[in-house]
Amino acid sequence: MITREIESLIKEYSQQFRSLLVVGPRQTGKTTLVKKVFSNKPYVSLENPDERLLAENDPRAFLNRFPKGAILDEVQRTPLIFNYLQEIIDNSNEDGLFILTGSNNLLLQSNISQSLAGRVGIIDLLPLTFQEIEKFGKSNFSLNELIFKGSYPEIYDKNRNPTLWYPAYIRTYVERDVRLIKNIENTLLFTKFLKLCAGRVGQQVNVSALSNECGIDVKTVNSWLSILESTYVIKLLQPYFKSFNKRVVKAPKLYFYDTGLACSLLSIKNTNELSFSHFRGSLVENFIVMELVKKMKNKVSSNSIFYWRDNNGVEVDILIDDGNKLLPIEIKSAQTFNNDFLANIKKFNSYSNVDSGWIIYDGTLEFEAENGIVVKNWRNAII
Hints:
By secondary structure, the chain is of the alpha/beta class. Helix content is 44%, strand content 16%. It has 18 helices and 13 strands. Helix 5 (81-90) crosses helix 6 (105-115), helix 10 crosses helix 14 (259-265) and helix 12 (207-214) crosses helix 13. The longest helix is centred in the middle third of the chain and has 20 residues, at 162-181. The protein starts with 6 loop residues before the first helix and ends with a helix.
């Protein structure tokens, strides 16, 4: 069992809040992690039908079994329990009393905002970072290998075959998690929608195009995108809000939290196919974006991440805003540097008076190109 980067943060939160909620995609190791950190607490899975039935029918009796608190796994399955948790937590002075986990941010957030606001610390546990993957004993993964295999712990811990593991994951996700949020009868159509989203990795969300291609109305497209986002399948990266006197686009860009899942949906069967796929550039961008997002989540960074694009097509893949300055970043899948890589950052910097930037690429040579723009290998850029 490896040590997750977020482990120290979980311990700190448990000493600062009366209850702790760990949320994230299925199979990211939430249960393993909280059982390791809070090994002295009793563990209950609300996926267990008997436990769930008791929690639904008599929440008070269910919670009274744990006077010193407990780990309640997949707590979104019993939303009624939050009202009773509020009373117990309010009457206790103990921090870290109940440790909750869940795979559905939408249902959990709505219940918490009503019942446990200010009483619970919330932590996102996302798939493995590149550095965590290296802890499994292999440190020479190529970029293509990492993108194809994805970042779910079981892939590395159990040495699973991605071409078998991800289709099973997708089927379980559609048939269980999606039905829990919204009873979508046509799961085949929803799976088609999921695949269409995978084909738009790194692109601006075009609701009308998705509506036309999937044969559903715009309202349903927005509803399904919300489901995918709340269950940590996709991340919608918002555009930067300052225009710098330019007309800027306002649609978010679509990324998958896990590139292995995206590869499976795109029917990419091995790293060789990935090498020649016209999706490779977008998947490289997706991988780097999500590595930066995971780093920020694991450190509870105050930095914010955006992208920027004006109506003339000048786009910067990533803008990191630390509150005082902006860092524009361009991501390239090539192994050889080209001066053309600098063009968009130089244009953005001329609009915004920023005097720095990064080019992240698959090459090994690192140097400062010009005007404060640094060229970095992806491994060093995501540490």
